[in-house]
């Protein structure tokens, strides 16, 4: 499996699976979640509602992942994961690593060969970007997929890209 980091917009990624930094309610939000629903169209939200009905309490546990159609995005599927909110007093890093591992397993189960991730939890959820990048690489590397040959981190700013490049070289 090849891991790389690029600067760009996740909604334009030419991959089989795009991972969404969603929330447990699964009905959209700001940040990359908002961008995915805007660009992907209403089909994604419709499937999110259906998926939500099958989840206990209608909520996706943080660290878990579920798949839907990618609607009008170039990707074939969106895998939605809910990251942890950053806490200075509690170590939630296992949950963040689990977002990457769970998403990659779901993507692999679909037969995806290429998967693009954003920097989960590093925006609205406030996770410090250097550590977010380290947890991302550790989470992805904890999985040995059957089908996935490329994981691409698609980052929105040069600062976040630099953090991922550093984590990948470590
Ligand atoms: N392509 C790539 N990266 C992006 C894009 C994009 N189009 N847009 C934003 N980013 P965030 P979180 C970057 O806030 O911290 C939502 O309301 C962004 O700069 O999207 O996990 C959800 O519904 C940052 O580096 O996700 C949740 O409630 C990274 O993506 C909550 O926000 C993640 O930022 C999740 O917060």
Automatic annotation (TrEMBL):
Gene3D superfamilies the record matches: Leucine Aminopeptidase, subunit E, domain 1 (3.40.220.10)
Superkingdom of the organism of origin: Bacteria
Occurrences of domain Macro (ranges): 1-170
InterPro entries registered for this protein in UniProt: Macro_dom (IPR002589), Macro_dom-like (IPR043472)
Family annotation (PROSITE patterns): MACRO (PS51154)
Protein name per UniProt: O-acetyl-ADP-ribose deacetylase (Regulator of RNase III)
Species annotation: Petropleomorpha daqingensis
């Amino acid at each position: 499996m090849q891991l790389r980091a690029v600067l760009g917009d996740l909604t334009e990624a030419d991959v089989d699976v795009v991972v969404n930094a969603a929330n447990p309610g699964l009905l959209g939000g700001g940040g990359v979640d908002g961008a995915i629903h805007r660009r992907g169209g209403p089909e994604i939200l419709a499937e999110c509602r259906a998926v939500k009905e099958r989840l206990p309490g209608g909520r996706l546990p943080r660290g878990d992942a579920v798949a839907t159609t990618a609607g009008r995005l170039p990707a074939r599927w969106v895998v939605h994961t809910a990251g942890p909110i950053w806490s200075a007093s509690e170590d939630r890093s296992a949950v963040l690593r689990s977002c990457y591992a769970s998403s990659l397993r779901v993507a692999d189960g679909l037969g995806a060969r290429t998967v693009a991730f954003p920097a989960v939890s590093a925006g609205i959820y406030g996770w410090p970007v250097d550590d977010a990048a380290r947890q991302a690489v550790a989470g992805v590397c904890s999985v040995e997929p059957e089908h996935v040959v490329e994981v691409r981190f698609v980052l929105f700013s040069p600062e976040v890209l630099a953090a991922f490049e550093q984590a990948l070289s470590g």
